[in-house]
Design goal:
heterodimer; A: UDP-N-acetylmuramoyl-L-alanine:D-glutamate ligase; Protein-Tyrosine Phosphatase, Chain A; 2 domains; 17 strands; 21% strand; B: 247 residues; Rossmann fold; six-stranded mixed β-sheet
Chain lengths: 461, 247
């Protein structure tokens, strides 16, 4: 007991101190707590109803959507909003929100969890629902190949025998987790699928796919339709393995706007018209993931569907600021699948704009930046409305090089090494700007932009 | 008009780590010089006449998918590839594609996986994965410039007696982290562990490949100079970080 009190006190003190020092330290307080009491996370999360979101892309936005839905249902929700999604960060979030004796103060939690950390986090917090958004190649030098990431998630799911598992039906790498030993043997209704039941998105066969061959027998998949990247209605012509039927699915796309998408969605509670207040198909997938998790906990999916109309984006996910009268949108881009969606969005813009691409190669980003060559910047460079593109970050020259080989007007490319200068250029310019940073460069640029635009620090949510 | 015909072998499975950047790089650097270029993907199961191609690119892939591929490499495909190599056609082979040229791959359990056997080299599973930026110096006959790239492999490759490496390690592991060699240079085959992708940041290396292929096709050939300031800025930045030990 004494250890618990000490761990909680140390965690809270450490977190307060870091914030006083204006450091957004999110992992250290958790490390301190775990050091003092290795069983701290079990205690401070005991009795809570916990939702875990993992997968390569969309974790943060799906978590925000789910948190928002729960709040709309009148619940007080604990969430790791700052994106600290390893064991230490998750521990810090729970511990700092517990009473001094280590009791949870809230009933519900939405936790975004790193794929690799899932197997450590899950046995400690015993989630009610785990959602896997998708699997794409991501930071390969940190995780190794995408199959390795999948193995990590599988281990995590095996350690959650009581949880309801929600899987993306359109992603063969994710959906097939349902058939794995230690996962498949769950009672009926304990595995749920979500997906887009109709052709949507760019509908193209991707040039690069992370899942070409049947995971069961190795034959090349065929598709009834594609949505984006390797997502779609896949089936194996050899062994018959195919996209599972969805429990929550999009059956029609009614309207695609620059700031929203309106769809028809079937849930366990019939079919409804749903407006997702964020643009692009990948946010429709995030919405599906959130609604499925919500309904998997026994709540009424209609409440979650309705809440999507008023959802706001998370940290650096289509966040909007105003600098010198110019609208600035920040879109985190950290791997080819996400980048292709965001860059594709800019390729289709019909108003003149400036773009800022930022690339760091620090530990949290991954040292390997080769993935920028897997991104289709060609349409972006050829969009006449793209007036100027600034390349910044540790590997700015690599970005500029990639853009040069994407064609278009080389004169539009400019390398800026100091992030503060980027804010100056946006502020003194006359164009709306789209800023596409990767992880650590997002932390840098967001701090500069939000300070100038008068927003709070990120841990203030 | 001069032209080169490029074969991209197994693009659907050997496409890790931005390696398609090598194709983009070759295409653009030919185009900018007014040389025509076509790229033909040859996938598993496709029939293809390898005598039609001047230059081949083979990338690296995931272990899971390499198994599927080895089936395709047996039989006539194997003979066609060896013939193309012996015929002096130009090859760029990266990581898995490079290992594939050798005799075999020995797994940690001691199982031997038979490969093409086109070049006298073999690969053995290592216990540690080499993952990071690295640099090597091209052998003198290729100009001796320093190539920067990114290596990500656990296999250790050993060259047979008298087989030339592509270069000598400046920083990083290379072939096996033991003998200081990186890659292989056999006839007009260039094998390397370098992802990155390797060509865009090392335009001189890209031009060596293009010129080799053009010379074989047209007898003598000299490429026009290009403005490589952005390329070399990215190159120098990585080399600088490596030499200073930042990464």
């Amino acid at each position: 007991m004494f250890r618990t009190v000490l761990a909680v006190a140390a965690c809270k003190a450490c977190r307060t101190l870091l914030r006083l020092l204006k450091r957004g330290g999110t992992a250290l307080p958790g490390k301190v707590a775990l050091k003092i009491d290795p069983g701290i996370l079990e205690k401070v999360s005991a009795g809570m109803e916990i939702f875990v979101i993992t997968g390569t892309n969309g974790k943060t936005t799906t978590s925000r959507m789910l948190e928002h839905a729960l709040e709309e249902a009148g619940e007080d929700v604990l969430a790791n909003k700052s994106g600290a999604n390893l064991l230490s960060g998750v521990t810090a979030e729970f511990t700092a929100n517990a009473s001094l004796t280590g009791r949870a103060k809230k009933h519900t939690a939405v936790i975004e969890c790193d794929e690799g950390a899932l197997k450590q986090v899950v046995p400690r917090i015993r989630p009610r629902v785990i959602t896997v958004t998708n699997l794409f190649r991501d930071q390969l030098d940190r995780y190794g190949e995408v199959m390795h990431t999948r193995d990590q998630i599988r281990e995590g799911l095996r350690k959650a025998q009581d949880a309801v598992i929600c899987l993306n039906a359109d992603c063969s790498l994710t959906a097939s987790l349902a058939d794995e030993e230690g996962i498949a043997d769950r009672p009926d209704g304990r595995i749920r699928f979500f997906g887009v039941d109709i052709p949507a998105g760019d509908r193209k066969e991707p040039e690069l796919s992370d899942a070409v061959h049947c995971i069961k027998c190795g034959t090349r998949y065929a598709y009834r339709y594609h949505t984006y990247a390797h997502l779609g209605s896949f089936y194996c012509p050899q062994c018959g393995y195919s996209r599972p039927d969805t429990d929550t699915g999009v059956t029609g796309i009614l309207e695609e706007g620059p700031d929203h998408t309106t769809v028809t969605m079937h849930t366990g509670a019939g079919t409804q018209t749903v407006t997702v207040a964020l643009p692009a198909l990948y946010n429709v997938y995030n919405a599906l993931a959130a609604v499925t998790a919500f309904s998997a906990s026994g709540r009424d999916p209609v409440v979650a569907c309705r809440s999507l109309e008023s959802v706001e984006s998370g940290f650096g996910r289509m966040e909007t600021f105003t600098l010198g009268g110019n609208r600035v949108q920040v879109i985190l881009v950290k791997n080819p699948a996400g980048a292709n969606q965001s860059v594709g969005f800019l390729s289709r813009l019909t108003e003149p704009f400036a773009a800022v691409l930022m690339l760091n190669d620090r530990t949290a980003d991954g040292h390997d930046i080769s993935w920028i060559w897997d991104v289709d910047y060609e349409g972006f460079m050829q969009n006449e409305n793209m007036v100027r593109v600034f390349c910044a970050g540790d590997r700015a020259a690599d970005l500029a090089l990639r853009l040069k080989y994407a064609g278009g007007d080389e004169e539009k490319i400019e390398i800026i090494s100091d992030p503060a200068q980027i804010a100056d250029r946006i502020e003194n310019g006359s164009l709306p700007a789209y800023v596409l940073p990767n992880y650590t460069s997002l932390l840098q640029i967001r701090e500069i932009i939000s300070k100038r635009a008068g927003h709070g620090a990120f841990w203030e949510g | 008009m001069h032209s080169l015909s490029i074969c991209h072998l197994y693009p659907e499975v050997l496409n890790l780590y931005g390696d398609r950047g090598n194709i983009i790089c070759m295409e653009k650097r030919l185009l900018w010089r007014g040389i025509d270029c076509s790229v033909t993907p040859v996938r598993i199961g496709d029939s293809a006449d390898f005598t039609k191609f001047d230059l081949f690119f083979i990338g690296g892939g995931q272990d899971f998918e390499q198994e599927v591929l080895l089936q395709d490499l047996k039989g006539s495909r194997k003979q066609d590839l060896i013939a193309a190599i012996e015929d002096g056609r130009t090859f760029l082979c990266v990581c898995g594609g490079y290992q594939m040229l050798g005799h075999s791959y020995e797994t940690a359990a001691g199982d031997i996986c038979e490969f093409l056997g086109a070049i006298d080299l073999k690969t053995v599973a290592g216990t540690q994965r080499r993952i990071d930026n690295f640099a090597f110096r091209l052998e003198e006959g290729l100009g001796g410039q320093t190539v920067v790239g990114y290596e990500n492999h656990s296999g250790k490759t050993y060259l047979g007696k008298g087989v030339s490496p592509l270069g000598t390690i400046v920083k990083g592991g290379g072939n096996n982290s033991e003998d200081g060699t990186e890659g292989v240079h056999y006839k007009n085959v260039f094998g390397t562990y370098s992802h990155g992708p390797v060509l865009p940041k090392n335009p001189f290396f890209c031009d060596i490949l293009l010129e080799t292929a053009l010379k074989r096709k047209y007898g003598s050939f000299t490429l026009d100079e290009l403005d490589d300031r952005i390329e070399m800025r990215a190159h120098d930045q990585v080399l600088d970080m490596l030499l200073k030990g930042r990464i």
